[in-house]
Design brief:
Largest sheet of chain B: none
Strand content of chain A: 15-25%
Radius of gyration of chain A: 65 Å
Number of helices of chain A: 14
Structural class of chain A: alpha+beta
Number of strands of chain B: 0
Largest sheet of chain A: 5 strands, antiparallel
Number of strands of chain A: 17
Largest interface: A-B, 8 and 13 residues
CATH architecture of chain B: Up-down Bundle
CATH architecture of the largest domain in chain A: 2-Layer Sandwich
CATH topology of the largest domain in chain A: Heat Shock Protein 90
Shape of chain B: elongated
CATH topology of chain B: Methane Monooxygenase Hydroxylase, Chain G, domain 1
Shape of chain A: rod-shaped
CATH class of the largest domain in chain A: Alpha Beta
Strand content of chain B: under 5%
Radius of gyration of chain B: 19 Å
Order of helices and strands of chain B: HHHHHHH
Helix content of chain A: 40-55%
Number of domains of chain A: 4
CATH class of chain B: Mainly Alpha
CATH superfamily of the largest domain in chain A: Histidine kinase-like ATPase, C-terminal domain
Helix content of chain B: over 70%
Distance between the termini of chain A: 80 Å
Oligomer: heterodimer
Strand order of the largest sheet of chain A: 2-1-5-4-3
Chain lengths: 567, 214
Amino acid sequence: MIKRIFHSIFFTAVLVFLAGSALVTWSLYSYFTQIACQELRTETRIVAQGAEAGGADYVRGLDGQNFRITWIDADGTVLFDNDVSADDLTNHLQRPEVQSALQTGYGESRRYSDTMTQEFFYSAKLLTNGTVIRLSLAQNTIASLIYGMLPHFLLLLLVTLLLSGFLAVRLAKKIVDPLNEIDLDNPIANESYDELAPLLERIDQQQERLSKQRADLRHKKRELATVLNRMNEGIAIFNNEGTVLAINRVARSILDADIGCIGKNRIVLTRNMDFQNLVSRAIQGTQGEKVLAFHQRLYQVNASTIRHEDNIHGAAALLFDVTEREKNNRMRREFTANVSHELKTPLHTISGYAELLQNHFVKTEDMPLFAHKIYVETQRMIQLVEDIINLSHLDEGAGSMQWQTVDLAQIARQVKDQLQPEAESAGITLRFTDGDACPIYGVSRLLQEIAYNLGNNAIKYNKPGGSVTISVRRTARKEIELSVTDTGIGIPKGEEERIFERFYRVDKSHSKEVGGTGLGLSIVKHAALLHHARIRVDSKLGVGTKIIVTFPGSTVKNSGTVTQRNV
Amino acid sequence: MREAFDRELEQLKNEVATMGMYCERAIDLVSESLLEANMAKAQDMPELSLEITHKEREIESICLRLLLKQQPVASDLRLVSASLKMVTDLERIGDQSEDVAEIIRVDKFFYTGQDIPLRRMAEAVRKMVSESLDAFAKRDIQLAQSVIKYDDIVDNYFEDVKRLIVEKIKAQDCDGEYLLTLLMVCKYFERIADHASNVARWAEFAVTGVREGE
C-alpha cells in the first residue's frame, strides 16, 4: 500500500512538473518570438533611417551580429548581404516582405528560407530611393535561448524528483500508519479514518461471533474430554489414516501411552498386533472384537467403524476389563467339570457294589460291609448335593433369607456340641472359649454353617492328639470375631486364598480318606460375604491354622436390607 | 519444508515401530507354537517373515530418500542412520524366528518339558525385543542400557541350557535328537537376544550419537 501511494504521488508530481515545464517553455517561446519580432521591427526602422542618412557605407558598416541585413534594389537585385555574398543571391523581388514593402512601404513575413535552410522572420522597409532594406532573424536564435535554459530545467527536474520522492515516502507512510496501528482485537476502540468505521464495526461483530463460537467449541470439547475421562472403559478414536484423534485416560493407562500420542500414528499407542489389526480392519469397514492381554490383565477390545453417510471417517476402539469375567467364566467351567467328576465317582462305586450284589458274587457274611459302603457313598453324594444347593442359594443372594438378631456365641456352642462325637472319634480335643452373648444381625442357618464348616475342617485336617479351639468374642472396635484354631497340617504359603475355591484341597492325595465335599470353605466364604464379614487366615504349614471371621460392628444391630452380592 | 521433513521422520519412526511389531509377533508365534505344541502358529510364520523383509526394504528406501533429498544433520541424521542400521537387526530377528518355525514345521518339534528353562528364555527374549523398541520410540537411554545389560541374563540362560543338556546326554536320560534340536532352538533365541541388544545400542546412538562397543 505504501508503495502504491508512493508511486501515485511521485508520478503525479513528475507528470505535473513535466507538463508545467512544457507549458512554460511553450509560452516562453511565443513570448520570446514576440519580443524578437518587436526588436526586429525597431531595428529595421533604425537601420532604414541610418541607410537613408548614411547611404551604402553605413549599411555596409553594420556588422549585424544578431540580424541578417539584406539591401535589395528596386528591381529585386541584392545589393548587399552581411551574411552571404550578394552575388550568390538570387533576385529577391518576389519575396512577400519585399513585395509588401514596395507597395506599402513596410512588410513582414515568416517563412522558410531556401538560402539558409531554416525558418526566418523577415522585416523589410522601403527607403526613399526605392531600395528596400530587409532584416531577418533566424528562429533558432529563439530556440537556442530556450536551449540555454535547459540545464536549469534539468536541475529543477532533479530537485523536483528528489523532493517529490521524499515527500511521497513521507506522505505514504503518514497515510498508511493509522491503518497499521489499528488494533484489530478491539476494532471499535480505534480512531482511524471515518471511511474505515463500517469495516471495523463489521470486524468487531465477526470477532465477537467467532469468540463465542470458539468458546462454545472449547466448552463442547472439554465436555467430551470430561465424559471420556470419566468413563470406566478405555476409548480411543482414530481417523481414517489411523491417526489418534482422541484417547481417554483409561485407554492411555491400558495401552501405556502418554497424552502426546494424540495426532500421531496409532502405532505409537501400542505394538500389539491384534489391536492394530482390529483397528485397521475397522477403518476398512469391518467391525470386530477380541479379548486381548495388556499388563497381565484381559481386556475386551471392540473396534467399530465411524461412518457418516456411507463414508468411513475413522474408527473407535473401546476397551474394557474382562479379567474378572474371564476368571469367573473359567471358574464356572471348572466348577461344572468338578461337580460332574465328584458326582460320578461315588456313583461308580455304588454301581460297582450293586452289580456285585446283583450277580450274587458277594458272600452272605460280607453283605453288611457292602451295604455299609453303599450307604457311605450315598451319604457323601447327599452331602455333596446339599452343599451344591447351599452354594447356589448363596449365589442367588440374601434376598430370600430370614434375617434376624441371633447370638453368635450360642450358635458356636451348639456347633461345638454337634462336632464333639466326631472330634472324640478322631482323638482330638475340642474346646470352646465361652464369652458374653454376642448378638448379631444375620441368617442363623448360615452362621451355623460357617462355624460348623470351619470346625469340621479343623478336626478333619488335624493330627492325632491335636486340638481345636472355637471362640467368639467382641473386639475393642465393637466387631464380633469368630475364630477357629487348630494344630493341624496347615496350609502352604501362597495358597491361603485358594482354600476358599470350590473343590480345592490342600492335600490332594488323601481327599478320599478325609471325606468331605471340598465345598465347605467355599460356603463359608460366601456366607461371610453375605454378612459383610472379613476372613483372615493365619497358617503355618505343619503347625496349625487359625481362621478368623470378623463381623463388622454395623451389622450387629443393623436391621436394614442387606445388599445382594454375587461372587 | 521443515514441516514436510518432520512428517517424513515421523513416518520413518512409525514404520520402524510397525516392523518391530511384526518382529514381536514373530517371537510370540514361535514361542507359543513351541510351548503350546501349536503347529498352526508356526505355519503363519513364512508370511510374516516375508512381510518383515518387505518392511525392511521399505524403511531402507525411506532412509535413503531422506538422506539424499533432505541431507539431515545432527539428531535427524542420527535418527535416520540408526533406523537404517536397526532394520538389519530387526530383519535378522524375523529371519531367526522363521528358522525356528521351520524346525517346528519340518521336524514337528515341540517343547515337551524336560526341565529346560525354554519358556523363561523365550519370555526374556521377548521382553528384550519389546523394550529395545520402546527405548527407540521413547528415546529412553536408560531403558536401552538396561536391555543391553539384560543380554547377559539370556546368555546365562543359554549356558544353563547347555549344561543341562550335557548332563542329560551323559545320563542318557532323553532322546538325543530332541536335545540337540532344543539346543539349536535355544541358540536361535540367544541370537535374537543379541540382535535385540544391537537394536538397543542403535536406540542409544540415535539419542547420544555415541555407539557403545560390542
